Write the structure tokens for this entry.
Amino acid sequence: MANYINGDEVRITKVGTCLVDVEFYSGERFEGLEPRRLFPLSGLRNYITLLDSDLKEKAVIRDLDRLMPDSKKAIEDCLEEYYLIPRITAVLNIVEKFGVLKWTIMTDRGERTIRIKNRHSDIKTLYDGRILVRDANDNRYEIPDVSALDKHSQKLLSYEL
């Protein structure tokens, strides 16, 4: 049975690229746990599971924002590394040919050209306003806030969303 972490009853320290040690103030300790989101699309900050090397759940963080600052940062760093999704910062061009969209985009990782097979299933607007895009090679991209993009990008996207 997993331990539920509700707030500041633990100290979490990062010990590897995607690993943490968890020490409960009651004395219980787990080493080398991997943080993973139970709801990777909708639950970015809630219900983070901590798995051991056998992928057995040892603890669940109910709300990341209720952790102590150092513990919170350790988990955020691990999740950022594990769920690396380039963020689209600008849409430079969109061309459609034979039903396939070709987007030229700028991301936080540089310029890319991606192909999108089906605008209805490969471009999803989530409840919190984020947009997830999946390309023909099953790579994922995120637009955290369309309104934060430049006017040209917003105009191009207005035809696709």
The radius of gyration is 19 Å.
